[in-house]
Amino acid sequence: MKLVIDANILISCLISGNISGMVFSPNLELYGPELLFDEVRRHKQEIMHKSALPETDVDLLLLLLEKQVTIVPAVAFSSELSKAEALLREHKKDIPYLALALHLACPLWSYEKRLEAIEGVRIVTTQDVMDLLKQQKTSHRNYL
Predict the structure, then answer these.
(1) Residue pLDDT, tens place only, 82-126
(2) Which structural domains are found in the chain, ordered by start?
(3) For residues 144 and 142, what is the distance between their CA atoms, to the nearest angstrom?
(4) DSSP secondary structure code for residue 112 in this structure
(5) Tens of pLDDT along 18-60?
(6) CA dihedral in degrees (86, 12, 59, 41; nearest 10)?
(7) Which of 36, 129, 24 is nearest to 67 (CA)?
(8) C-alpha to C-alpha distance for 71 and 113, rounded to whole angstroms
């Protein structure tokens, strides 16, 4: 399953420690705009504080995540930026994520409730992703 992942999802996964089962699933193809990890790193102190992880562990997890998420340069989805901006209006920080989801024609994995009302892009929550992964695992088991 191809998904654009929002920085808040990665931050939440790092804080909760619940990254291995989902973010590293072989059934997910994760994509993000080039600003994704800059945004996550701006919250590094918060991640360390809330997760009680030492800085070296957070740095290592970020390196692993960078290998898991395909970063797409803005130039690749620049044709969708004006459409994303028009759809989002005042929520400028989400424009690259929405534009990339439009470009890749795939869902956006985000907690942002206001994005759910936008037509043309499917927004999935962490629970949606967990349910889909569970379904895939069950259907694969039934196939065997």
Answers:
(1) 999 888 877 788 899 999 999 999 999 998 777 777 777 889 988
(2) 2-143 (3.40.50.1010)
(3) 5
(4) -
(5) 766 667 788 889 999 999 999 999 999 999 999 999 999 999 9
(6) 30
(7) 24
(8) 24
